[in-house]
Write a structure and sequence with these properties.
RNA-binding, about 475 residues, 3 domains, about 50% helix, Four Helix Bundle (Hemerythrin (Met), subunit A)
Length: about 475
RNA sequence: GGCGGGGUGGCCAAGUGGUAAGGCAGGGGACUGCAAAUCCCCGAUCACGGGUUCGAUUCCCGUCCCCGCCUCCA
């Protein structure tokens, strides 16, 4: 493969070469489970899911790790408000997250580590940092000494001295330098806490990713992903923590996805303009929603609005319609093994070009256009054409489902199950309609068609007679 | 203020130093009893002003506008 990937740290596209041939280790920052995921979270999920699928389709064995941050200020606040244990909150939303990811067609990670399950690893890292004089403990808190890490700011392209003004003012009186950030936070009264060499407390946010990524993938793993809004300070701190402690490279490629916009502002909980991800999947459907996510380059901003979602619905509909028609025309013929090759190559080339999904999707459109001739011939019984059509349809499903995760086959299967149940009924109606048409009684024929349409059955007349499908099963409630 | 990313046909969106993929919407046509589906045809000179060049949408400078990060955040 010849994947070129934009690397945030180097600020350019670079050839992606795994540290170990044939294998890829990937870490993507997961949710802080303090509430329901929104459409913005879905973008990161889909972008990295597609990257992962493309790597796998390229023949690489991918190990995908995504953490769950199950302890933080907001979780504690929510638990307090509801009068329950923090684990009630984190478990509730972690489960909801998993369910929603499944609905979105996002493959589950190979490892989904919990922050609270890696406290010893974090403490070991902190201990190392203190021993190296890169961190210091103050009354139960531990802070990272930012100025002791000379390359701090490399990822986000910032100079330390320019950061001072906006530095976090929390705990300013206890820090040596306002830039320093917490590795371990001492417990305040009534807060959940865990024992540590520095007293009871809980980990800072950034330390978990440094510890868990290294634990589950090893230092110097291939790809670290996350939203562009995590570049500073989260990812910057992850690098600092690991590299200051071990002196080795933490992650080899940094990939970041752009933000989802609502109107002219970023979709964000703090802005208060979020749309729930679960609701969006239900309303739009997995395939259309993913096509919308993939309608722009992964680093560009992407606007959530009805018009663009309608576009995505239309595209998904076109894909499904084509596959359905192709499967019928192919009549079970074996795929010929050649017809889709150029499209497959073009698709792969697009994905290899920094995950150029808009172009990859355009290849799928081209495939459908190119399939028109064979499709018409196949419908007339041309066997060679049937083999080509079978090949093209399977190619579209493979690329669209295996790599982009659209779920085309799934939608057709669901429709098919319904169609089989109602077939005797519909076929009877269509028999009557055929008789009416033969007798030129079009009013009667159209009445039957309208009746079926009202029941969610769409009838189309072709050279080979009427065909039909259950439109209801195609609706978004995936 | 600092850093970064953008302004391409009605909408979305690729892309390239040699006159701009694809999709959606719209119009016309083929097909159809009518539809549906599908196919074919039709539309942009790339924010603005300079510059470099034989030639720039693509490179450089400037201007205007938009967005993100700089605090929790996918």
């Amino acid at each position: 493969m010849a994947l070129m990937l934009y690397d945030t740290l180097r600020r350019q596209e670079v050839a992606f070469v795994p540290a170990e041939p044939g294998r890829v280790g990937m870490y993507v920052c997961g949710p802080t489970v303090q509430g329901d995921a929104h459409v913005g979270h879905g973008r990161a999920a889909v972008v990295f899911d597609v990257l992962r699928r493309h790597l796998a389709a390229s023949g690489l064995a991918v190990r995908f790790v995504q953490n769950v941050t199950d302890i933080d200020d907001k979780i504690i606040l929510r638990a307090r408000r509801e009068g329950v244990d923090h684990a009630v909150i984190s478990t509730r939303y972690a489960r909801a997250f998993e369910r929603t990811m499944e609905l979105l067609g996002v493959l589950p990670p190979d490892v989904r580590p919990l922050a609270t399950g890696h406290l010893l690893e974090m403490q070991a890292l902190i201990t190392t940092l203190i021993a190296a004089d890169k961190a210091y403990a103050v009354e139960g808190d531990v802070f990272f000494r930012v100025r002791a890490f000379p390359t701090y700011g490399a990822l986000s392209n910032r100079r330390i001295d320019e950061l001072v003004e906006g530095a976090d003012v929390v705990d300013r009186d206890r820090k040596e330098d306002p830039l320093d950030f917490a590795l371990w936070k001492s417990a305040k009264p009534d807060e959940p806490s865990w024992p540590s060499p520095w007293g009871p407390g809980r980990p800072g946010w950034h330390i978990e990713c440094s510890a868990m990524a290294a634990t589950h993938l090893g230092a110097g793993f291939d790809i670290h992903g996350g939203g562009l809004d995590l570049v500073f300070p989260h990812h910057e701190n992850e690098i600092a923590q690991h590299e200051a402690a071990h002196g080795t490279t933490f992650a080899r490629h940094w990939v970041h996805n752009g933000m989802v916009q609502m109107g002219d502002a970023k979709m964000s909980k703090s802005v208060g303009n979020v749309v729930g991800l679960a609701e969006a999947v239900e309303a739009v459907g997995r395939g259309p929603l993913r096509l919308w996510y993939l309608s722009a380059h992964h680093r560009s901003p992407l606007t959530f609005d009805d018009e663009r979602l309608d576009d995505a619905r239309a595209v998904f509909g076109r894909f499904v319609t084509f596959v359905r028609a192709a499967r019928r025309a192919a009549a079970g013929a074996a795929r010929d093994g050649v017809a889709g090759a150029t499209h497959r190559d073009a698709f792969t080339a697009a994905m290899d070009d920094d995950l150029n999904a808009p172009v990859a999707v355009s290849v799928l459109h081209q495939l459908i256009t190119d399939a028109d001739g064979p499709l018409k011939a196949a419908a007339k019984g041309d066997q060679a054409a049937q083999g080509a059509v079978a090949e093209l349809a399977d190619t579209l499903v493979t690329l669209g489902d295996d790599v982009l995760g659209l779920g085309i086959a799934e939608v057709l299967d669901r429709a098919s199950a319904l169609e089989q149940r109602i077939a005797p009924l519909v076929d009877g109606e269509l028999e009557l309609r055929a008789q009416a048409r033969a007798a030129k009684d079009f009013a009667a024929a159209d009445a039957i068609r309208d009746r079926l349409a009202a029941a969610g059955v769409v009838v189309e007349d072709t050279a080979a007679g009427a065909v039909w499908y259950a439109a209801e099963a195609l609706r978004p409630a995936t």
